[in-house]
């Protein structure tokens, strides 16, 4: 069935397709054009969506709203990471979650990444490829915003590192927006999850159980393990009662939960989720990224609690070469050449706000602090904050990139308030907030 485009888009696309595009790599030229298919819910009404799979094996998609002026494109890097074989559904899921871009009139392009797992640099390559595919198949935009969410913010930061140099006098990306970012890199972002596995095992002794094969906890799970997420959640409940109401927990469960949360400073509500990531993500890191070697270290960490707890916690030292390779793949370098703005909830239960302090230090070492503005909100969520807060951040970032008007946290907060009439309530910026160092929350190694 032929898709009927709203008139502005139907007129605009053929004209834009004639724009001169830069020379593109062979894998881009070898990719078949994306095909038109129905859009997921919540994208702007009348949007045209196209989907494909690139020559490297990554699913990808575009969303082109009916009022697109042919000028503004956002290239999105999704969170996760997803494990296992990539699925096409990941592309449509993010189109729905980040429909704010099409509702603002931006065209949207995103890759589902060609491989699952904790592989940041390859995801950055896939992100840049989808930008090039959009140029080859749709149009050459005048302004391209690179956006990364959660783990995808780390992907976007690496994309900016790798591809931020000007191409023929113009950088491939004009600005970068990083939201709820895991920005301390693999070398620091996951330390607390090894702490969690080690402390949890010392307290609960059921992951693994005594009658199961022993393995070093940095492996996450043995390669052939059959444990499921519901089974792990059941073990956590058995020990801590975390999914029960406090009054329904036994005295032992209350004591166990309090000990774990005091030693590893995570919110109670995210205990099961972090144990999941410290299980299956660690399994991916150990066997698919590090060749069966350990990249984590808790050998000398002193945990909050008594001497008996610290004596019973399993200890591990990293393989130096494996740890260095993991850092090289996952750690941002702060070498971007364009304006970067971050938005982060102060009480984010998944990506601790203190990671922003580490990212600032990284950017400072690269001599790039003049290109970074960090903003914080009083939200306590991770996956999505509010439409109006993103609109304010995007508008401020575009003004900075196009007109040289560098925002401040205060000016973004004020801009947000002025946009609530059009985009709904939800301004919770805290321009007075500065995150403490990550070492105040996660013991340094």
List keywords for this structure.
single chain; 445 residues; alpha/beta; Rossmann fold
Layout of secondary structure:
Blueprint: H1 7-17, H2 26-29, E1 35-37, E2 48-53, E3 59-64, E4 72-77, H3 89-97, H4 100-103, E5 107-111, H5 120-137, E6 143-149, H6 151-163, E7 175-179, H7 186-189, H8 191-204, H9 229-240, H10 251-263, H11 271-289, H12 307-312, H13 320-330, E8 340-345, H14 355-365, E9 372-377, H15 387-403, H16 409-423
The percentage of residues in β strands lies in 5-15%
What structural class do you assign from the helix and strand content? alpha/beta
Task: Detail the poorly predicted runs.
Answer: 1-20
Outline = globular
Mean pLDDT across the residues is: 93
Give the oligomeric state: single chain
Distance between the amino and carboxyl termini: 59 Å
Rg over C-alpha atoms, rounded to the nearest angstrom:
23 Å
Q: Under CATH, the topology of the largest domain is which?
A: Rossmann fold
Q: How many extended strands?
A: 9
Helix content: 40-55%
* CATH architecture grouping of the largest domain: 3-Layer(aba) Sandwich
- Per CATH, the class of the largest domain reads Alpha Beta
Succession of helices and strands? HHEEEEHHEHEHEHHHHHHHEHEHH
CATH superfamily of the largest domain: Alpha/Beta hydrolase fold, catalytic domain
Spatial order of the strands forming the largest sheet: 1-2-3-5-4-6-7-8-9
- Biggest sheet architecture: 9 strands, mixed
Structural domain count:
2
List the total number of helices.
16
């Amino acid at each position: 069935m032929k898709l009927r485009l709203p008139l502005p888009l139907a007129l605009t696309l053929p004209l834009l397709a004639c724009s001169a595009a830069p020379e593109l790599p062979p894998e881009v030229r070898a990719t078949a054009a994306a095909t038109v298919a129905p859009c997921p819910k919540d994208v702007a009404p009348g949007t045209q969506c196209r989907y494909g799979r690139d020559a490297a094996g990554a699913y990808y998609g575009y969303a082109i709203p009916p009022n697109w002026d042919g000028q503004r494109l956002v290239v999105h890097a999704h969170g996760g990471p997803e494990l296992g074989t990539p699925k096409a559904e990941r592309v449509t899921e993010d189109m729905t979650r980040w429909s704010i871009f099409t509702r603002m009139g931006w065209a949207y392009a995103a890759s589902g990444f060609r491989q699952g797992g904790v592989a940041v640099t390859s995801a950055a390559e896939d992100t840049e490829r989808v930008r090039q595919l959009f140029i080859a198949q749709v149009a050459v935009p005048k302004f391209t915003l690179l956006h990364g969410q959660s783990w995808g913010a780390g992907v976007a930061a690496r994309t900016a590192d790798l591809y931020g140099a000007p191409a023929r006098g113009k950088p491939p990306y004009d600005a970068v927006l990083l939201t709820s970012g895991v920005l301390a890199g693999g070398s620091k972002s996951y330390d607390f999850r090894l702490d969690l596995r080690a402390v949890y095992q010392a307290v609960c002794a059921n992951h693994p159980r005594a009658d199961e094969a022993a393995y070093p906890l940095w492996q996450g799970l043995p390669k052939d393990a059959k444990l499921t997420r519901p089974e792990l959640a059941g073990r956590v409940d058995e020990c801590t009662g975390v999914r029960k109401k406090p009054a329904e927990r036994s005295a032992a469960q209350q004591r166990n939960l309090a000990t774990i949360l005091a030693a590893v400073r995570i919110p109670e509500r995210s205990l099961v989720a972090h144990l999941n990531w410290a299980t299956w993500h660690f399994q991916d890191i150990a066997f698919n990224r590090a060749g069966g070697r350990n990249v984590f270290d808790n050998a000398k960490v002193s945990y909050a609690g008594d001497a008996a707890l610290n004596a019973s916690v399993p200890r591990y030292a990293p393989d130096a070469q494996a740890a260095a390779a993991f850092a090289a793949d996952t750690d941002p370098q702060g070498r971007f050449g364009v304006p970067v703005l971050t938005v982060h909830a102060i009480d984010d239960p998944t990506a601790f706000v203190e990671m922003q302090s580490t990212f600032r230090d990284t950017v400072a070492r690269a001599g790039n602090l003049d290109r970074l503005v960090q903003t914080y909100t009083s939200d306590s969520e991770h996956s999505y904050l509010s439409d109006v807060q993103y609109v304010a951040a995007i508008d401020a970032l575009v003004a900075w990139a196009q007109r040289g008007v560098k925002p401040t946290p205060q000016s973004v907060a004020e801009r947000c308030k002025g946009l609530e009439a059009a985009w709904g309530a939800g301004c919770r910026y805290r321009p007075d907030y500065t995150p403490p160092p990550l070492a105040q929350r996660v013991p340094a190694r």
